[in-house]
Amino acid sequence: MNRPANVTELLQALVRIPSVNPDGDPGLDTTGEAACAEFVAEFLAESGAGVALEEVLPGRPNVFGIFPSNKPGKKRVVFAPHLDTVSVAGMTIDPFSAELRDGALWGRGASDTKGPMAAMLWALWEMREQLPLLGYEICFAGLVGEEAGQYGSKAFVDKHHADFALIGEPTGLDIVHTHKGSTWLHLTTWGRAVHASAPERGENAIYKMMEVLEVLRKNHSGFGGNIRSDSRRADGKRWDHPGRQQNQHRPRRMPCERRFPHPPGAGSPRLCRGDRRRTAQRLPRSPSQLASIPPVVDRSRASVDRRARTRRRPPLRRPVVLRRRRICRRRDSGRGRRSGVHRAGAHQ
């Protein structure tokens, strides 16, 4: 390879190699980190490291380099940036030009995290002769799939170990020594689908989910003891946000995922009693609760269309209960006669 002359040229070379994560809409036909991993592997090899490309997903390898040490048993320090970038869709500049302009380098990944990765690689190059003499064993791990799935980091910890790691995310040069966790709530609201000519007879599950999310948004401070006081990051921004929501083209069912990250050491947050009560008021009843409610038919609103011989369905006020007529025969005075027996069937 043509070795860059300085760290800026190294960063330009990295940015010019597309390594867009394929998740979602990458905005590019060619995705994956393979080309970037091969470039980094070659640079590490020239710096004196023993290098291996470890495939995590098809065409998406981690690159792992370990530098020689003058004695075994040292604690291991690993430099671990990620190779992938987010989508280039919607960018108004050439995402891979690596242009130097206005005192900055422009391109996808220049900050997250090819900039930190270039700084790490160049420091390892300049220190290559001193690395074996240090009190730690020095390693480098270029990880795939950080922007979605964390496949590279999961594969790395399954195969390797480290006593200390430098991740290299853009932090404004602040040292960040902790990491937040997260808790996902999987919510589903149910409504009733009706014909478009009579929407007033139905219930829209999307509107119900909006009410639930509003309750959670206003009462997020009630999650756990530490969350109540530490629900904001150091920069003052909240951590919680709703995730995927789908209505599947139907107003009857509305699944949703909501993510509640929490500070280090806080553990998984739990809904406090007030949050559970307020949320439960807007969530569907459990099957056991539904089974205890007697069937109800609003006879005052029911009417029979003599031509269609159908019964109009009343608006849903309680869980829907099907009533079916079982036709049986009984003998009465020697003649078979049908009689209707009404029974309440299973609720929906």
Question: What are the defining features of this structure?
Answer:
single chain; disordered C terminus; alpha+beta; 348 residues; 8 helices; 3 domains; Aminopeptidase
Gross CATH architecture of the largest domain: 3-Layer(aba) Sandwich
Might you state the CATH topology name of the largest domain? Answer: Aminopeptidase
What's the arrangement of strands in the largest beta sheet? 1-2-6-3-7
Average predicted local confidence, pLDDT: 76
Show unreliable segments.
Answer: 222-239, 247-251, 284-314, 316-348
Shape: elongated
The CATH class of the largest domain is Alpha Beta
Quaternary structure classification: single chain
Structural class: alpha+beta
Radius of gyration: 31 Å
| N-to-C series of helices and strands | HHEEEEEHEHEEHHEEHHEEEE
How many distinct domains?
Answer: 3
Number of strands: 14
- Number of helical segments? 8
How would you characterize the overall build of this protein?
The protein is 22% helix and 26% strand. By secondary structure, the chain is an alpha+beta fold. The chain has 3 domains: 160 residues, Zn peptidases (Aminopeptidase, 3-Layer(aba) Sandwich), CATH 3.40.630; 104 residues, 2-Layer Sandwich (Alpha-Beta Plaits), CATH 3.30.70; 44 residues, no CATH class. Strand 1 and strand 2 form a beta hairpin. Helix 1 crosses helix 3. The longest helix is centred in the middle third of the chain and has 14 residues. The protein is elongated and about 80 Å long. The C terminus is likely disordered.
